[in-house]
């Protein structure tokens, strides 16, 4: 019998041939897991579409980014789940209450995506400011993929707007394109050239954050940059 890290109820893990050969012990009950909706939308950014598949290979968000940037800094984004009310509550508890056990329920799935799609990529994460790390006690993106070798090559520019992304309007987020909040770790600059990078973060909303991080890496000589997140906002 296991205890669900989300609802705290006891549950029996279903025994299957697969479960006999995997070291992963299920930590979420079936009732809670059913509320996590897999992303199957836009091929480039995984934006969910309630009305069926997108006619084009990319959604309106991706098209607007190409028009805004001329060349999109981000090759593609993969997100595990739709950012519905259930997942919003989970990630809020994880980030703001320090419930790292909730973050770890996504680790196995993130690792699987990395192995399947980004096996030859250097893995990095979106950095927090020192103020945010002090408030939370950890970087949520780092904790999500604990155990994977991370090259932390990005830093936050001191003095940039450090309000929580959830407190900013869409316009304020998009305006980050004109004021990149990221810089490079000095010791990593010589390592970046010619490498493919995967940026890990918790939520993809408008895509501004990962694109500005990607821009920083590309300008340093990275070959290609993609992102992987737990959640994809339904409305960017």
Automatic annotation (TrEMBL):
CDD domains according to UniProt: PRTases_typeI (cd06223)
Tree of life domain: Bacteria
Domain Phosphoribosyltransferase positions: 134-232
Family according to the record: Belongs to the ComF/GntX family.
Protein name stated in the entry: Phosphoribosyltransferase domain-containing protein
């Amino acid at each position: 019998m296991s205890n669900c890290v989300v609802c705290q109820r006891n549950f029996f893990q279903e025994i299957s041939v697969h479960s006999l050969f995997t070291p992963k012990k299920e930590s979420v009950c079936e009732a809670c897991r059913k509320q996590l909706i897999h992303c199957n939308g836009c091929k480039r950014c995984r934006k969910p579409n309630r009305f069926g598949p997108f006619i084009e290979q990319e959604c309106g968000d991706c098209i607007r980014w190409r028009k805004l940037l001329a060349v999109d800094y981000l090759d593609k984004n993969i997100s595990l789940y739709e950012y519905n009310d259930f997942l919003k509550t989970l990630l809020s508890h994880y980030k703001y209450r320090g419930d790292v056990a909730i973050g770890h329920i996504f680790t196995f799935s993130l690792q699987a995506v990395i192995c399947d799609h980004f096996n030859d990529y250097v893995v990095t994460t979106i950095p927090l400011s020192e103020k945010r790390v002090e408030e939370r006690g950890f970087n949520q993106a780092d904790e999500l993929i604990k155990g994977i070798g991370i090259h932390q090559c990005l830093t936050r520019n001191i003095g940039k707007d450090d309000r929580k992304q959830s407190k900013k309007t869409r316009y304020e987020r998009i305006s980050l394109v004109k004021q990149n909040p990221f810089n490079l770790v000095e010791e990593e600059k010589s390592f970046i050239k010619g490498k493919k990078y995967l940026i890990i973060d918790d939520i993809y909303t408008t895509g501004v954050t990962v694109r500005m991080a990607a821009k920083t890496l590309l300008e340093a000589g990275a070959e290609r940059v993609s992102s992987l997140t737990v959640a994809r906002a339904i409305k960017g």
